[in-house]
Amino acid sequence: MQPNDDILMQVTGMIKSLAPEHPEITGETDLVADLDFDSLKVMKLLEQLEDRFDISVPLNLLPRIRTVEDLTLQLQRIIGEG
Amino acid sequence: MAIFDKFQQLLVTRQNLAAHGLATVNVVMEKLLSPTEAIVNGRRTILAGTNNYLGLTFDPECIDAACRALHESGTGTTGSRAANGTYSGHVALEQELADFFDCRHAIVFSTGYVANLGMIATLVGPGDAVVIDADCHASIYDGCTLSRADIIRFRHNDPDDLDKRLRRLGDRAANALVIVEGLYSMLGDRAPLAAITAVKARYGAYLLVDEAHSLGVLGDHGRGLAEETGVADQVDFIVGTFSKSLGAIGGYCVSNHPELDLIRFANRPYVFTASPSPSVIASTRQALAALRARPELRERLWENARRLYQRLQDLGLRLGPEVSPIVAIRMDSPEAVVRWWNALLARGVYVNLVLPPATPDGGALLRCSMSAGHTLAQVDQIAESFAALPAAGDSPGPAA
């Protein structure tokens, strides 16, 4: 599955608002290694994305999410199921 | 990567905290003097972080009951009830719990952690959804993980967010298990249970309430938040522990669902854990009887809680959102919290130190838990020890 450009743009926009010190966000950006996101920040990001797309992201999926693209693809899958 | 490499960050964190004088994990209660006092570092210390809400750990009748059981039935059961059989005390305690909660069925577990682990992992499974308050205890998260159900968090104490989460589940909501706590262990705030039961009823979902910190604390009979809120008949499962108000160790689940007795046999953490020892069962039964017969314990607990909360509020400290036997002092800086924790211990007051990520909002906490066993003089001494602390940078410290 390829990341949907519109969803990827919304995800990167939201990450930028939470990490303004990192203006260069790409699909390969690693949330923890590159952005220093701790678990609280990851949960805050997820809550905002869940509200934006009116979905719930099960916590079980978190181990599969490392990069911005991973996150985008998981959101796409859930939105597609909805 | 070697299997131990992942612990290096813990080592760094521990070394950083040690540089601030932290010794919390090394605190040894050299001698217990009472439910509220111990010798620590050779010094008489008030215990203000024990969850010993009713102060029953040294109750003479509980101790006598435990001693009798030791002599009559031995030190341990040496195995699970599924393998080694049930002792009469296990059955008696289950009947007494069912009677106390006015429920038809009860299961006793060996710890509160196992109670949550076993109940959640057995009630839901792959393909199901479990919808939990974000601030739920680790045992609830671990039970959810073991279940392999989809784990969905809703914002802490936010019934509207719960509603959204259930709506998004569509048809699956009718089989979803919602989990909240009566009193949240870190900040001592209650769940908005009337609103939560209304939401879960709208979707036909099931509700499990963990009353670990509210048993013996809330409700006219001390049954917990479900009783206090008047919604006990709308709660499917109540889980709790014997290790707080009942002064022992163990856990329970009570329910009106007849399937609870079947769940017992499918419940791997229950089936494969050694059952509670006879002395633990005996002291727990006696403590439950004391909880029922002595409502003045609850009144004294709340008197102490109100007094400490007021005194600390008057000092300008940032506290949890409501008066409760859990009095949490919220701070931003872990280093400042560590300094205060050490200063309190040096003054002979032991409280709990809570650092991120165990805190709800990423801050740091000093957490006091009040007991019916505290005297008013002890409560005042705890408050005066806080008043004597130096200002702590990020916090409106007492001496600021």
Walk me through the structure.
The complex is a heterodimer of chains A (82) and B (400). Chain A has three helices and no strands. Chain A is globular and about 35 Å long. By secondary structure, chain A is mainly α. The relative contact order of chain A is 0.22. Chain B is of the alpha/beta class. Chain B has 15 helices and 14 strands. In chain B, the strands form three sheets. A seven-stranded mixed β-sheet of chain B has the order 4-10-9-8-7-5-6, with helices on both faces. A four-stranded mixed β-sheet of chain B has the order 1-2-3-12. In chain B, helix 2 runs antiparallel to helix 12. The mean pLDDT of chain B is 94. At the A-B interface, helix 2 of A face strand 6 and helix 7 of B.
Number of strands of chain A: 0
Count of DSSP H/I helices of chain B:
15
The number of helical segments of chain A is: 3
The description of the largest β-sheet of chain A is:
none
**Element-by-element helix/strand order of chain A:** HHH
Termini Cα gap of chain B: 48 Å
Percent helix of chain A, as a range, is: 40-55%
Shape type of chain B? globular
Helix content estimate of chain B? 40-55%
In terms of structural class, how would the helical and strand content of chain A be classed? mainly alpha
Cα-to-Cα separation, first versus last residue of chain A: 17 Å
Q: Report the radius of gyration of chain A as a whole number of Å.
A: 12 Å
Mean pLDDT of chain B: 94
Q: Which shape of chain A, going by the Cα principal axes? A: globular
Backbone CA Rg of chain B: 21 Å
Unreliable residue runs of chain B: none
Largest interchain contact: A-B, 12 and 18 residues
